[in-house]
Design a protein that fits this description.
Layout (H helix, E strand, L loop, with lengths): L1 H23 L2 H4 L4 E8 L8 E3 L2 E5 L3 E8 L6 E4 L5 E3 L4 E4 L4 E7 L11 E7 L1
Parallel strand pairs: 1-4, 3-9
Antiparallel strand pairs: 1-2, 4-7, 5-6, 5-8, 8-9
The protein binds copper (II) ion.
Length: 127
């Protein structure tokens, strides 16, 4: 009886540990990043209040960055950098390697209010 309990406990722990691994692996555990950049989306009563900070990001070609997108309040934003595969969401950080030199414009992907269309950000990748 003790043996059956022991085997059942071991099996239970094995199942539990395998579930934990798949849920807890995060991007920064898999990929080593050169830099972490947090972008915050701001909104407000006026159009001028709508912006991303920083408004410009400069990377070196080949640099791997972990991007985190946050909001200053409960208004949600997203960013799509045109000409790249980089799309940011507040749900999870995104790891991106800048392989192509150029200047890419990022636009807010979520209709966030009166100043939504003015929410732009520049991604510059230098040699
Ligand atoms: Cu928006």
């Amino acid at each position: 009886m003790k043996k059956l309990f022991f085997i059942t406990t071991i099996l239970f722990l094995l199942i539990l540990s395998s579930c934990g691994q798949s849920n807890t692996i995060t991007t920064d555990e898999i990929v080593e990043v050169d830099r972490e950049i947090t972008i915050t989306g701001y909104t407000g009563p006026d159009i001028e209040d709508f912006r991303f900070e920083p408004e410009e990001i400069v990377l070196k070609k080949g640099e791997t960055v972990k991007f985190t997108l946050k909001t200053d309040n409960n208004v949600s934003h997203g960013i799509q950098f045109h000409g790249t595969k980089l799309i940011l969401s507040e749900r999870a950080p995104e790891v991106y390697t800048a392989n192509e030199v150029g200047e890419y414009k990022g636009l807010c992907t979520k209709l966030c209010g009166i100043g939504h269309a003015t929410m732009t950000i520049s991604l510059i990748v230098e040699e």
